[in-house]
Amino acid sequence: MFVATDDADVHIVKTGIETYEKIKKQVYVIGQDVDIHALITALTPDYTDILMLKE
Fold first, then answer.
1. Domain count, the chain
2. 1 within some domain
3. How many other CB atoms sit within 10 Å of the CB of residue 40?
4. Range of the domain at 20
5. Is residue 47 part of a domain?
6. CA angle 2, 42, 7 (to 5 degrees)
7. Is 19 inside a domain boundary?
8. Does residue 41 sit within a domain?
9. What is the pLDDT of residues 24-47, one digit of tens each?
10. Closest CA relative to residue 13, chosen from 54, 46, 49, 41
11. How far apart are CA 8 and CA 50, in angstroms?
12. How confident is the model at residue 2 (pLDDT cuts 50, 70, 90)?
């Protein structure tokens, strides 16, 4: 468990990326905050595919 003392968006995205690197399977990051989408785009390595879905 992780308790954020401030904005947790960066931690959420980095945890998703680190999890993918460990298990090499699809990882889902679900959120409504636009910051999460921007961070996923910025922090994900170029060799990794990103699929974004709209509700």
1. 1
2. no
3. 19
4. 8-53
5. yes
6. 30
7. yes
8. yes
9. 999 999 888 899 999 999 999 999
10. 41
11. 20
12. confident
